[in-house]
Amino acid sequence: MNKYWAKTLKITCIVLFLTTGANLFSSCNDDLPADSYYTFTGEMMSDFLQTREDFSLFRRIVERAGKMDFLGSRGARTLFPPVNSGVEVFLKEHGYASVEDIPASYCDTLLRACLVERIIYTYDLPQTQQENNQLDLPLIIQTDGDTVDADHMTLSIINRRAAIINKLKNDSVENGVVHPVDQMLVPNTSLGATLLDENHSEFTIFYEALRRTGLLDSLARYRDEDYETWKENYPKFRPNIVCGHDTDIFTAKRPDHRYSGFTLLIVPDQVFYEKYGDRFNKNMTMDEKIDALYKLAEEKYGDTQSSSIFGLNKVVPNNAEGKTYKQLFWNRNSLTHSRNPLNMLLSYHILDRLFESTAKLVNCWGVYTKYANPTEWISTLLDFSTIKLEKVYSAVDPAVEYPTEYYINHSVASIYNSGQRVRGAHLTTPNNDNFSLNVSYFYIDDIVAYDEAMRSNVMNTRIRIDFYTVWPELTNNKIRLCGNPTQPYGSYDNTENGTEGGGYNYYLPTNYIKNLKINENAIFFAQRPKIGMTSAFDDCVSILGTYDLTFRLPNVPPGSYELRLGYGAMDDRGIVQMYVDNMPQGLPLDMRVNGEDPIIGGLYNGWNGWRNSEENSNGIYTSEELEENARTMKNNGYYSGPKSLYSGNDGTDAPRYSASKCTILYNLRATLRRKICNVQIQANTYHTMRIRSVFTPTGRGVFHLDYIELVPIEICGPGGFGEDQY
Questions:
Q1: Which range among 382-391, 484-493, 690-699 has the greatest average pLDDT?
Q2: Would you give the DSSP letter of residue 243?
Q3: Under 8 Å between Cβ of 612 and 626
Q4: Mean predicted confidence (pLDDT) in 579-599
Q5: pLDDT in tens, 231-256
Q6: Virtual torsion, Cα 113, 117, 123, 125, nearest 10 deg
Q7: Are 539 and 533 in contact (CB under 8 A)?
Q8: Cα-Cα-Cα-Cα dihedral of 599, 600, 602, 608, to 10°?
Q9: Residues 345-365: pLDDT tens digits?
Q10: Which helix (H) or strand (E) holds 88?
Q11: Is the pLDDT of residue 7 over 50?
Q12: How far apart (Å, rounded) are the C-alpha atoms in residues 397 and 413?
């Protein structure tokens, strides 16, 4: 994309964004009840600005936006107003002589960029916190101790630009809290490759390779305009959905839009020079650097199994000479073809969803990090591939260099990989702007690939996948991990106002999710995350009604696997027949029965008591008895919940396990895993799972999609390595 068109695209996107969003703020104002404008005796946000001269410039921005009355109305908001010096920097950067030169509509946008519709105090902030402002754009607040003020106090930095001023923060007013900042929060409304066009000085090799392969142009997809029309066939809200206990009543929101997004894992130039010094150096021409990267890509995907997985050995349709994809496109003149090695290497570095920050990169809720690392398995732009995102703890991997930080394609040493630990690539956040409306990027300190090491080592394990990560739409449209997981169920869950931090319960119209086929009579219900749910990771998808749905199984390397479904049993559940590749598998699953039922045969200590007397004095069985019982359950086609997952939480500031506050899913008789079948995963083939309701109860017949497991037969099958309880 040349610079002229990049600049034109950016200007167009900003105009469209401001135009389509023009009613957003006014609707927040207009929808307020009349008593929201009563006069209060206490100080409001408007009073805060009007009585402090160091905010006179921002006050004028608010006045020109016509929103001073709004800041004087009732509410529970957080405002991040810039001091005058911060506004002056903004004026200079954008070529404005004074605030009076800023268009009134843009003044409105600048105010919305500084407002969050909930109260946030800095003493509640974790290391990385992601909130949405009134533009529905992310505010990434980092409080990691790396940046301090003149008094050596840790600073909280917003979007890597503005610091909350410690001496002025947490100033409570009647309608919220005010955190003054030292710079203006400027919304980034660019789209597509514009973000990379403007910030690639540290990764010129990777950027040029993206440009030459045409992958920069593939990042343009953002909002599905067709959905803006057909969504009107569905109500904005569906009230009084009962799911779980009879008293668990919800109002479900239809997604406002259908967004797409991308996350790039970028290797900076310096990494190439340091880790691949025999291939790259600063004195090489760019053509030579791209050629060296091309050769590396050939090595990563040149093996026989790669040819099979990605269809490189297939004959190109309508090719008169009968050449395969590899014969025709493995050359430096075919970089834009999806089966060219350089194109494949880079496509694997692009995730098919938008993660603006590490705050929601991996779901850590309910993971007992003494025994397991929080992990997500995510699809990429390279067909038939999967990438592993992991927050690595030293309790699990003593050799980790950066404990509690993020790694890509990491694996601890185990019997499954012959004791060969795989470090993977360490992920960090750039110092520059690293996200826009539909694109974000992070740095990694090594090339990653869906190569032999990834397939045979890292993925030769029990692969446990949260259903919330199976479909990119749930991440791209802020459905996954929305709101405050520590806020329990309440009457607010059955209102159209949502809950803390933008937490809504959603229902998804038919055809909203790509590669998911579901009948119109079914309701795809995505509950907001809440600690203490009878499910893993404190989230779940429920299917209600008379349902019949089919979706693609996640990508795993070719081979034999045991396919399992993790779920929570409850009285309101249904009975379903499951299919793989449209072939029925076993007897129907009755989700109403818990682990003590004779059909399952588990030994439990009541609803959630400790089972093992050697792990806790309240336990009632020995390890030997439970090992024998695990064999009984397995023969019946079931497994207990994992010991590495728990329900509940100790505190409200971050995920944390304690024996007094939490229940290990292994001890909870309702959290089970059911073997569906053994499945043979074929190369270059998408496999499907179908779930059909076969029971129409007087109740609700809910189907619970919690998580899925794919376990290599060489681990869990007869004569295999054996499987731990985590």
A1: 382-391
A2: -
A3: yes
A4: 96
A5: 999 999 999 999 988 889 999 999 99
A6: -70
A7: yes
A8: -100
A9: 999 999 999 999 999 999 999
A10: helix 84-94
A11: no
A12: 8
Q: How far apart are CA 179 and CA 157, in angstroms?
A: 12
What does 196-229 look like in DSSP terms, one character per residue? HHHS-TT-HHHHHHHHHHTTTGGGG--B-HHHHH
Cβ(593)–Cβ(602) under 8 Å? Answer: no
Amino acid at 53: E
Residue 265 contacts residue 448 (beta carbons within 8 Å): yes
Nearest to 672 by CA among 589, 569, 576: 569
Query: How far is the C-alpha of 456 from the C-alpha of 714, rounded, in Å?
Result: 12
The token pair at 475 is 């991440």
Asked whether the beta carbons of 503 and 519 are under 8 A apart, the reply is no
Rounded-to-integer distance, Cα 72 and Cα 70, Å = 5
In this structure, what DSSP letter does residue 683 have? T
* Angle made by CA atoms 436, 441, 447, in degrees to the nearest 5: 165
Q: What are phi and psi of 418, to 5 degrees?
A: 60, 30
479-484, long-range: CB < 8 A, 24+ apart: 479/255, 479/504, 479/506, 479/526, 480/360, 480/363, 480/539, 481/360, 481/363, 481/529, 481/539, 482/528, 482/529, 483/528, 483/529
Write the DSSP string, 495-508.
Answer: STT-BGGGB-EEEE
Exposed / middle / buried, residue 272 (Cβ in 10 Å: 0-12, 13-18, 19+): buried
Q: Average pLDDT for residues 34-48, to the nearest whole number?
A: 64
pTM of the predicted protein model: 0.90
Place of tokens 């012959």: 418
For residue 234, the tally of other CB atoms under 10 A from its CB is: 15
Instruction: Kindly state the average pLDDT of the residues 306-310.
Output: 97
- Give the alpha-carbon dihedral of 363, 560, 580, 595, to 10 degrees: -60
Q: What is the pLDDT of residues 626-666, one digit of tens each?
A: 999 999 999 999 999 999 999 999 988 889 999 999 999 99
The SS3 assignment for 709 reads strand
